Amino acid sequence: MYSDAHPREFPACSGCGLCRLVCPMWRNRRDPRFSPEGLAKALQCGATAAELAPPLDACSLCGACDPVCPERIDLTGMIMELRRALPRQPELVAQQAKFAQAAASAGVAPAGALLLPGAALRADPVLLTRVQALLGIAVAADDGADIALALETGDAIDTLRQRAFLRGLTTFGGRTLVVGDGLLLRQLRRWLPAARLQGLGEALGNVGAIRRRLASADFYVIEARAYHADYERLVGHYDGLRADTGCAMNLDLQRIAIPAVDEAEARWMLQGRRPARIIVENPAERAILRRVADVPVLHLAELAEI
């Protein structure tokens, strides 16, 4: 079921508990049901998705559990799969239909590097324009927002829709795709293993005008989903960024990214820190952190002049 990402499934869970150490659900609740380990052990004992609905809904799909699992279980994939058995929420059904309608009217993607902004970035046209100018690439009319939402909710993805989306991305072979939605990026790495894929944070972090404006007094918040989807490679990228700029990051001792999934998690992340600024890769986390921080919170693209 999850073999496209890792060779072993939830029956392999030994109950070591390493995933708890990095799990926001566990950190906030201290309830063993609200952890990847708890879900895997419950499944081993015959629990159904309906019985596990509260932790399945609570999971942020940040992916922090995947790199630390010694059995290499695709824990994020397990949760995404289990969500398919849960009732669909009407508001999300309507939102997905809206995204799908927009995708159906999209034209052919232009040649060259392409930005798939995702729903959060597309909702901020000013920021999107800035990102596009800094990267110097075209914005995809069809950025797969409906597919990203289906991945989030566990809905099945129509095969014809998937093929049409991927065909639009691969019409011009060899181009770079910059993906703003971390969950979609995770899936594209499985669907297009030979493609040149970058998360938005990585792409912007390589822009000299941005990199030069990061300072040692900044606290840099890595977007967890994109980071954990390519963890082994991106550890080196962010170690280099930290060495060049001196900024602190939302990484624990295992180099796992701590997501600001809600205000409680954001406050926990900032506890004991006194940064001059908070710099984020994810527009959604910018909104959350602005509600709890008493220092400026900026998106990475807002650092550079254009």
What does the model show?
- By secondary structure, this protein is an alpha/beta fold.
- It has three domains: 10-83, Alpha-helical ferredoxin (Fumarate Reductase Iron-sulfur Protein, Chain B, domain 2), CATH 1.10.1060; 90-203, no CATH class; 207-303, Rossmann fold.
- The protein has helices at residues 24-29, 36-44, 53-58, 65-68, 75-83, 90-104, 118-122, 125-135, 145-153, 159-170, 182-191, 200-205, 208-211, 224-229, 231-245, 263-270, 283-292; strands spanning 114-116, 138-139, 176-179, 196-199, 218-221, 248-249, 277-280, 297-299.
- Helix 11 (182-191) links the parallel strand 3 (176-179) and strand 4.
- Helix 6 packs antiparallel against helix 9 (145-153).
- It is globular.
- The N and C termini lie far apart (46 Å).
- Residues 1-7 have low confidence and may be disordered.
- InterPro entries: 4Fe4S_Fe-S-bd, 4Fe4S_Fe_S_CS, Helical_ferredxn.
What does the secondary structure layout of this molecule look like, with pairings?
Blueprint lengths: L23 H6 L6 H9 L8 H6 L6 H4 L6 H9 L6 H15 L9 E3 L1 H5 L2 H11 L2 E2 L5 H9 L5 H12 L5 E4 L2 H10 L4 E4 H6 L2 H4 L6 E4 L2 H6 L1 H15 L2 E2 L13 H8 L6 E4 L2 H10 L4 E3 L7
Parallel strand pairs: 1-2, 1-3, 3-4, 5-6, 5-7, 7-8
Keywords: Iron, Iron-sulfur, Metal-binding
GO molecular function: iron-sulfur cluster binding; metal ion binding
Protein name: 4Fe-4S ferredoxin-type domain-containing protein
